[in-house]
Design brief:
It is built from 15 helices and 27 strands. By secondary structure, the chain is an alpha+beta fold. Strands 9, 10, 11, 12 and 15 form a 5-stranded antiparallel β-sheet that branches. It has a 4-stranded antiparallel β-sheet with strand order 2-3-1-4. Helix 3 runs antiparallel to helix 15. The two termini are 34 Å apart. This is Peroxidase.
Length: 623
């Protein structure tokens, strides 16, 4: 068996899967788990967080479970049929359309248990591999999980608790069918010494609250489209057909082994192809406290003339969220909410292009902090916004949130309630952690003379700048009313990878490392790394390029504190450090060699060779 799959479980090679307009091959995939691209989209969800008691029996459990895992093809076909029936019924859910979906993901310790050792040989510092290996609890400072959100208070995922090896997701249209599926899976776990660590229930809110999160706002509106899965608009092919404002993003931003939009491809073993990384976070919401804060702030703003005399707490909350409770974006209706017809969906067609300084939709609003769209002027002196194509598109995540607990009206203030946050991305650091650390929790993002403040919905405590008039600001102190009660990083394998894990044929370390070869143009941003295991070429926060070995010992450095903002391997054949103005601060003496190849070697050396194979330059770090 091992010999038959060696070619499949080797190094991931990124593929460019951009289809013709008439082709959507990802919709037919029986390899990709169904929640990643298609989305389960069910009213009732249960997450079973599990621990393996015996390797052999855990593999057998996974092998049997694999046949019950829902694929993208299955879920897509159902969702399309459901949508057609709903349109026919003028927005009502079809009575006889129902399904139960299953998905499974594995933590780093869970992968190690199934494989019989570390699943990854190469785990560079600052890489998504490191994030997966460390888990959320060890990265609490980066994620803002401090104080009441500290892992010491978590219900699952903390170091002092039972380890979680697998997360089994079950989703259904009907609660009775979900209960039956959960009982079936519990029985299967018991037969194979797979133990329940924690069980998370979640469901859409009832009645008129359906589609809202607990603060009372429509949720799940701003999802990215995916090239090769979602149809492009014939008149505007960078956007999804039938969903104005929804940009189509490269599948490689969500699936391992496919070309991303803007960054270098991280080395990962081939058995991880068409899998993804999952973030699971249980976020408790203090609904009354959040709305009380909105009331306090609008009173304060009215008192200084920064809000209209008729402004309500809903007016203030809309500025904190970036949308009105109905889902109407603030730029579409700055003064009042405009509820939608019962069968209509809130729009994702939002532009901040004519509001770069946040006079209408504050720069601290949740909508702008988590997805700046066309309105990100990184510094006050910038003349125009950053382009969405490339770096901003490449920060998007596929989010699958659903509430848990009773509404505030039904359960009272002290009842457990909140949002079960789930997201999928191909790079934990460049996507989820970047958004969380660099945007949500950063009081100085975007950079302004009067600090913008943190996200007032999911960020930590801090002071924000509320826009007043053409250029003024009024300072507001925001408290934290969302706290983390548990978190996990997991890997979601393809159906083939589940089979190989169950059969025990994936080698410890994931497979042999290989030279990492790149042709121009190639851009490295601060913190990004190219690694062959023994050679880790990293663009440091200081603006320097370094080579570290497998033990993270520095063996070479380009210069000292250059302050460069980008490192580029150029079509001319040179590797250069660039200033904000695009000027080369430092460069290799290899210009004039178009077609040159930059390689991080498994010997520990980093080199540039001409198209003909002549060695032009190297770091001399082989060991």
């Amino acid at each position: 068996m091992m010999a038959n799959i060696q070619s499949d479980i080797g190094r991931v090679t990124a593929r460019d899967d951009s289809p013709d307009d008439s082709e959507l091959p990802l919709r037919e995939s029986t390899e990709i788990q169904g929640d990643i691209l298609a989305g389960f989209k069910k009213d009732h969800v249960r997450l079973l967080m599990l621990r393996f008691g015996d390797r052999r029996q855990a593999r057998e459990w996974l092998g049997r479970l694999r046949h019950r895992i829902s694929t993208t093809a299955e879920v897509t076909a159902f969702n399309e049929s459901f949508s057609r029936a709903r349109r026919t019924a003028e927005g009502a859910d079809p009575l006889h359309a129902a399904a139960v979906w299953r998905g499974v993901s594995l933590t780093y310790p869970g992968l190690a248990e199934l494989i019989g050792g570390d699943p990854l040989t190469d785990v560079p510092a600052g890489s998504t591999q490191e994030a997966l290996a460390q888990g959320c609890a060890r990265r609490k400072e980066l994620l803002g999980d401090t104080g009441e959100s500290d892992p010491a208070h978590w219900l699952f995922g903390a170091g002092h608790q039972e380890p979680v090896h697998a997360v089994l997701t079950l989703a259904a249209d009907r609660p009775g069918e979900l209960r039956a599926a959960v009982e079936e899976e519990r029985a299967a776990c018991e037969r194979h010494k797979v133990f329940l660590v924690f069980e998370q229930r979640a469901a859409t809110l009832p009645g008129a609250r359906r589609g809202q999160e607990h603060f009372g706002f429509r949720d799940g509106i701003s999802q990215p489209g995916v090239r090769g899965f979602d149809a492009p608009d014939p008149q505007d092919p960078v956007h999804q057909k039938g969903k104005p404002g929804t940009r189509l993003i490269a599948a490689g931003e969500f699936l391992i082994g496919r070309a991303p939009d803007h960054r270098v491809v991280t080395w990962l073993p081939g058995w991880m192809r068409d899998g993804t990384f999952q973030v699971v976070r249980r976020l408790a919401q203090d609904v009354e406290g959040w709305w009380e804060q909105a009331e306090e702030h609008v009173r304060a703003l009215r008192a200084v003339g920064a809000a209209p005399p008729c402004a309500t707490k809903e007016w203030m909350a809309a500025r904190m969220m970036g949308r009105w409770p109905s889902g109407t974006p603030l730029p579409h209706s700055p003064d009042r909410d405009t509820p939608l017809p019962p069968c209509a969906s809130p729009t994702n067609d939002v532009s901040f292009g004519d509001d770069l300084d946040g006079r209408v939709t504050p720069l601290f609003s949740h909508l702008r902090k988590t997805n700046p769209r066309d309105g990100l002027k990184a510094t006050e002196d910038d003349k125009e916004a950053l382009a969405q194509e490339g770096i901003l598109d490449g920060r998007r995540v596929m989010r699958r949130g659903i509430p848990f607990g009773p509404t505030a009206e039904a359960g009272g203030r002290d009842a457990a309630r909140g949002l079960l946050f789930i997201s999928y991305q191909s790079d934990l650091i460049a996507q989820f952690e970047f958004i969380q650390r660099t945007w949500v929790e950063a009081g100085d993002f975007p950079e302004r003379e009067s600090p913008v403040g943190r996200d007032p919905v999911i960020g930590g405590e801090g002071t924000g700048s509320f826009p007043v008039g053409e250029s003024g600001h009024h300072r507001l102190d925001f408290k934290k009313f969302v706290r983390t009660e548990g978190a996990l990083y997991t890997f979601v394998p393809s159906l083939s990878a589940l089979k190989w894990l169950a059969e025990g044929v994936i080698p410890v370390g994931g497979g042999p490392l290989e030279d990492q070869r790149y042709t121009a143009p190639l851009t490295l941003r601060r913190g990004e790394v190219i690694s062959s295991g023994k050679a880790r070429l990293r663009f440091q926060e200081s603006g320097d390029l370094t080579v570290h070995d497998e033990g993270e010992h520095e063996r070479w450095r380009s210069t000292t504190d250059s302050g460069a903002v980008l490192a580029q391997f150029r079509p001319s054949g040179e590797l250069a450090l660039l200033s904000e103005e695009g000027e080369a601060i430092w460069a290799t003496p290899t210009a004039g060699h178009p077609g040159a190849v930059l390689t991080a070697r498994t010997t520990g050396d980093v080199e540039i060779r001409s198209a003909e194979g002549e060695l032009l330059w190297h770091t001399d770090t082989a060991h």
